[in-house]
Write a structure and sequence with these properties.
The relative contact order is 0.16. This protein has 2 domains: 9-32 and 95-191, PH-domain like (Roll); 36-91. Helices cover 32% and strands 28% of the residues. Mean pLDDT is 77; it is low at 183-194 and 196-205. It has 205 residues and is α+β, with helices and mostly antiparallel strands. The chain crosses the membrane at residues 41-60, 72-91. Keywords: Membrane, Transmembrane, Transmembrane helix.
Length: 205
């Protein structure tokens, strides 16, 4: 049985955790990523300025088709527009992780969200393919722990969340409780807390 009642939110400092009717939603708190948020805003602005600059080159700069400057300006404007779009997309790719457990769908979704809570990078994992869910503890006191999901057929485990060790343990315990208390997954994953070997990074068995 899960520790949290449905639609109940846990008050944690480095992560948010909410029990839902379908399972569980947990994510890294925005307050931890103020520098990343400023970087995203700067990249958004830079991308928009570059695109607007390309529009300016197309419509406002004097060009003379006979001298070939039209083609030159057109190529520069096109490259600037593409670069601006690339900067904008890169800037909005997301810097906070969110984990969504949907027992009805039988899936665990790992998402990276941006400053506007928009999902940009998502990975859906079938619950039946999960081999283990475990913690990678920080090497030094005061560091951040990482919640990892090992999937069958994948050498490297997927990163679900990072945060204070005690809070990640709470998320892990709630995740285990929800998974063990339901029968939606055809194959029950092995759920455990384990310390990864110091010399092997995230590739602990």
């Amino acid at each position: 049985m899960a520790y949290l009642d449905s639609n109940t939110k846990a008050g944690l400092h480095t992560v948010d955790m909410t029990a839902t009717a379908q399972g569980l939603v947990a994510g890294e708190r925005f307050e931890r990523f103020k520098i990343e948020a400023l970087t995203e805003m700067a990249l958004r602005i830079a991308g928009i300025v570059m695109v607007m600059g390309s529009v300016t080159m197309w419509f406002f700069l004097p060009v003379d088709p006979e001298t070939g400057r039209l083609a030159a300006y057109g190529m520069i404007a096109s490259l600037m527009a593409l670069a601006g779009l690339g900067v904008f997309v890169y800037g909005t790719r997301g810097f906070r992780r969110r984990m969504t457990l949907d027992m009805q769908a039988g899936k665990l979704t790992l998402t990276k969200i941006n400053m506007h809570d928009q999902a940009r990078i998502s990975r859906e994992i079938d619950l039946g393919s999960i081999e283990s869910v475990f913690l990678h503890r920080p090497a030094q006191p005061g560091g951040l722990a990482t919640l990892l999901v090992r999937v069958a057929g994948k050498q490297a485990p997927a990163i679900a969340l990072s945060g204070d060790t005690h809070e990640i343990e709470e998320v892990h315990a709630e995740l285990c409780a929800v998974l063990k208390g339901a029968t939606a997954a055809p194959r029950k994953p092995s759920l455990r807390i384990a310390d990864a070997p110091r010399n092997s990074g995230f590739f602990a068995a």
